[in-house]
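Data availability (excerpt). The following record was deposited with the supplementary files.
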Amino acid sequence: MELEFLDCNLSYGPKTAEQFKNCADIDELLRYMKTAGIAGGLVTKSINEAVLANSSLAEDIKDSDILKGVWKLLPSCTNEIPQPHELPGLMKQNNIAALTINPKTHRYLPRKNVIGDYMEMANERKIPVIFNTSRGITLEQTDDIMRDFPGLTAILTYADCWPNDRFLRPFLDAYPNLCLDMTYMLTDCGLKDLLKKYQSDRILFGSGFPESYIGAHMLVIKHAEIDEEDKIKIAGGNLKKLLREARYD
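Predicted structure:
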């Protein structure tokens, strides 16, 4: 059976020092995806100014039937982005499916008294929140938020690849609705070994493109010594399920 790959970790925008390729606009991203055989996924716009990133991302993907956007959160008290009760409806209108935070770049503390209102809303509606340690949040800060909201539907991208099981497995044990993005999971036979203890429902295909090669983990999934059903889930089924369960009304 041909696998349908849905990527939970795509971005585009001005070139950064971390990128091995430049992917300046959405059309260029779509060309790379088509070449690799990626059917769709979640995308962020890699510019630092959160309000501009959110608005321009929505404009860029408004007509897309394969890409869903990821909006960046800021503290509600600064009134720079829509308030928590307004956000889900606007996400639906603008083809946005998930949220993320970058407290280092956007200069705020990722604590319950700062962004807890957004986390409560996301928790109630099962809207995925992405914690990507390559984008301004630490693993320790992620754990602090998850301890306050243990049922949160979350995607963890841990940007440390060698080795990372001792960092990642405690999150799978502690937080039942947290999934792992594969982008930096490069341990030899790591996927096969991970599935000896955890269900494949907790793992999402992610490329990290354009900071990482777009097809590397497609190859890992295709040739892993795991059941075909598990490959289908990890490649795209799990992400599709997460987005289907989220409520934006």
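Summary of structural features: The mean pLDDT is 94.
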